[in-house]
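ARCHIVE CARD
CATEGORY: sequence design from structure
SOURCE FIELD: tokenized fold
FIELD CONTENT:
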């Protein structure tokens, strides 16, 4: 299938998904307020804004947002400007909210960020920071899949056509020498696109033999008797690859850089706190998940899931470039021009003030970076 035809079909699917998500929950479900986190009386507004609208997923891979919201760290940095949260189920709906102006800043995976950037010809968003690495596994039924070779001929679930895990699995399958049609999912391995909420039921019923999924879905499958056959981190240099970025609407970044700086300062501070207090951070993330979804994760899911995720400020730009290349190779994306997708100038300022080293944009930064020091080589 020509790449242009595949791209049109993939974009048609991703274009339809926001409408389905929006019909179900508007521009993301509103996160429930934590009664302990309030705008301080008399506090000065940041950039004169009444509020900053922050989006994230109800996934542990968005732990920076979960913990930062729960502990009031975003609100603390924003002062008299209210931090408002919206919880999304999928990347396309979050990008749609960003494009429409109903969202200012969002935590999101690399594939939706690249797809959103490409569809808007680089005019809608910038990646301004990193958040998390890892937390993605291939979990299988040990009765039917005993080795990596046994995956051939089986039915493997991924969350969504063209999403980050879908691209990763298609790339891995191709490296095994297996052929799979990227649109239908049919081939030497059958790829079943299944929402993370549905996948555990599909796994339990035997309708899929395994899944390439993020946490906590991977650990849910293990709790049901599944076996981790492959941790995606093992496929990457230094076992690090971007799973969650921080994106911002370009207009918002241009008009309100102080507000973006406040959110990034909170993100950097949250990651520091998470890494210094992993047990407390894990509990805080689970409390926020419970507030957002109505149910906390059980310990046998929460504990292994949390341990497999690394929280960091580096957006790991080189790995995003590689992931975009994998989507091109799979026939889901035409070769994108990603120059300018990153603007790490505000993050550089925050890191410098915190005494932390700068991060690299892999040559994909804005043409005129506003930082004065050289990126780490």
């Amino acid at each position: 299938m020509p790449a242009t035809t595949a791209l049109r079909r993939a974009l048609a699917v991703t274009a339809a998904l926001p409408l389905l998500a929006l019909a179900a929950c508007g521009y993301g479900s509103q996160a429930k307020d934590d009664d302990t986190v309030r705008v301080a009386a008399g506090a000065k507004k940041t950039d004169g804004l009444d509020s900053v609208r922050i989006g994230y997923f109800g996934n542990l891979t968005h732990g920076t947002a979960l913990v930062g919201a729960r502990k009031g760290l975003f609100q603390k940095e924003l002062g008299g400007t209210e931090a408002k949260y919206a919880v999304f189920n999928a990347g396309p709906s979050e990008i749609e909210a960003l494009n429409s102006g109903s969202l200012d800043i969002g935590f999101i995976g690399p594939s939706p960020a690249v797809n959103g950037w490409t569809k808007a010809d680089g005019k809608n968003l910038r990646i301004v920071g990193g958040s998390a690495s890892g937390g993605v596994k291939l979990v299988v039924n040990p009765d039917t899949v005993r080795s990596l070779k046994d995956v051939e001929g089986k039915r493997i679930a991924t969350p969504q056509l063209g999403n980050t895990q879908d691209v990763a699995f298609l790339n891995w399958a191709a490296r095994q020498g297996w052929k799979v049609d990227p649109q239908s999912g049919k081939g030497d391995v059958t790829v079943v696109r299944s929402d993370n909420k549905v996948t555990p039921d599909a796994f339990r019923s035997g309708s899929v033999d395994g899944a390439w999924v993020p946490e906590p879905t991977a650990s849910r499958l293990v709790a049901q008797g599944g076996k981790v056959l492959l941790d995606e981190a093992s496929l990457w240099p230094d076992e690090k690859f971007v799973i969650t970025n921080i994106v911002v609407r370009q207009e918002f970044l241009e008009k309100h850089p102080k507000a973006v700086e406040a959110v990034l300062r909170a993100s950097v501070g949250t990651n520091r706190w998470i890494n210094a207090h992993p047990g407390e951070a894990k509990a805080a993330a689970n409390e926020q998940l419970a507030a957002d979804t109505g149910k906390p994760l059980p310990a046998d899911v929460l504990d292994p899931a949390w341990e497999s995720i690394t929280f960091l400020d580096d957006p790991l730009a080189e790995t995003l470039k590689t992931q975009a290349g994998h989507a091109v190779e799979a026939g889901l994306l035409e070769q994108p021009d990603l120059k300018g997708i990153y603007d790490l100038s505000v993050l550089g300022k925050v890191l410098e003030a915190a005494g932390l080293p700068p991060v690299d944009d892999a040559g994909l930064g804005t043409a005129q970076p506003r930082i004065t020091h050289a990126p780490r080589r």
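CARD ANNOTATION: Residues 1-28, 368-377 have pLDDT under 50 and may be disordered. Residues 3-25 form the longest helix (23 residues).
SHELF: design records, drawer C
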